[in-house]
Design goal:
GO terms for molecular function: oxidoreductase activity. The protein is an all-alpha fold. Among the domains are: 72-160, Leucine-rich Repeat Variant; 180-267, Alpha Horseshoe (Leucine-rich Repeat Variant), CATH 1.25.10; 285-345, no CATH class. It is built from 19 helices and no strands. Helix 1 packs across helix 2 and helix 17 packs across helix 19 (333-351). The termini are far apart.
Length: 353
């Protein structure tokens, strides 16, 4: 073997060993840093809880001796717990973080080039509920990076301004840029404040927007939207919208919706919509629906029959009594569905004991 080849192999071997050592060293550094951060989190979490629980009128103050790393970790822990804190405790933490400059820093970072930093800045603004920054968060909806747009949707769900609601409703018309489920969850965070805009969307939006609007109105129990939902259940051209409207009426739970739900359960051309209407009748729990539900247990479409049987379990004493009557004819189709529903009802009852 020539001296040149030996030297080359020695260099390659040394290089490989050096790379392995560097890789192992970097991994060790990361592990040590992660352990230290975990230790700081565990040490500072009680302090954050103490700051949130302070019940005096003085602004929260930090104890002396905290390092730069301690303060950065404390800020992150406080941001993480904010969604779980309500009332004065939340205000205490927000005041502390704003005084620490997090809100101003987030607004500055929104103008920086890195999308990861912009996305985090938007989320911080939302977590702190900085309504004065609504314009900037709405502007982030136009960011060319999807992670920033998604962060903006989440943040708008945490801001309380009407502008935030309007911007989220507008997002429903562009599901290719803003995931409809995420937008719906953000709108649900506004509760009944989003009701008027969503009712308008029920009539004017594209199908996906109308569907999500109905779902959110149901999730927020928007009694004022009942008439609009009844109209969509009866007249919308899209089965998905009609199904969402039926589900929403069930969650709202008004007995005044029974007639519209019965009509849909009997005459809607879509079996899925009929099933949703039957399920909603069970959610409303009005005994006037029992005859319709009982008859539907024999429907040839599985989802219709099973929805009717399950709905009967939720209608006072009359619903289960109707199932017991049907279950007596075990060899028939209605009897089998009734037996399955009663068995599920018994399992649920056993689970609550």
């Amino acid at each position: 073997m020539s001296d040149v080849l030996v030297a080359t192999l020695a260099v390659l071997t040394a290089t490989i060993v050096a790379l392995l050592l560097l890789t192992a060293g970097a991994r060790t550094v990361r592990l040590v840093a992660a352990r230290r951060r975990h230790g700081r989190v565990q040490r500072l979490r009680p302090l954050v809880a103490q700051l949130a629980a302070a019940d005096d009128d003085l602004p929260p103050t930090l104890p002396p001796g905290l390092t730069h790393h301690d303060l950065a970790t404390l800020e992150q822990v406080a941001l993480d717990v904010l969604p779980k804190v309500r009332g004065r405790g939340r205000s205490q933490l927000v005041d502390l973080l704003v005084a620490r400059g997090l809100a101003d820093d987030a607004r500055r970072r929104l103008r920086r080039p890195g999308p990861v930093g912009r996305a985090r800045a938007v989320l911080v603004i939302g977590a702190l509920g900085i309504d004065t920054a609504t314009n900037e968060v709405v502007g982030a909806l136009s960011d060319r990076h999807p992670e920033v747009r998604i962060a903006a949707v989440r943040a708008l769900g945490q801001l309380s301004s009407a502008q935030a609601v309007d911007a989220l409703v507008a997002c429903l018309s562009a599901p290719d840029r803003y995931p409809a489920g995420l937008v719906g969850a953000a709108l649900a965070g506004h509760g009944t404040r989003s009701g008027a805009a969503l009712v308008s969307c029920l009539h004017d939006g594209p199908p996906i927007a109308r569907t999500v609007a109905a779902q959110v109105l149901g999730a927020t129990h928007a009694q004022s939207a009942r008439t609009a939902l009844v109209d969509r259940l009866a007249h919308d051209a899209e089965p998905g919208v009609r199904r969402a409207a039926a589900g929403a009426l069930g969650r709202i739970g008004s007995p005044r919706s029974v007639d519209a739900l019965v009509e849909a359960s009997l005459h809607d051309p879509s079996p899925e919509v009929r099933a949703a209407a039957l399920s909603a009748l069970g959610d409303v729990g009005d005994t006037r629906a029992v005859p319709v539900l009982r008859d539907a247990v024999g429907h040839p479409h599985h989802e219709v029959a099973s929805s009717a049987a399950a709905a009967l379990t939720r209608v006072g004493e009359a619903g289960p009594a109707a199932l017991e009557s049907l279950a007596a004819t075990a060899a028939t189709r209605p009897g089998r569905y009734a037996q399955a529903a009663l068995a599920e009802l018994r399992r649920a009852g056993a689970g609550t004991r």
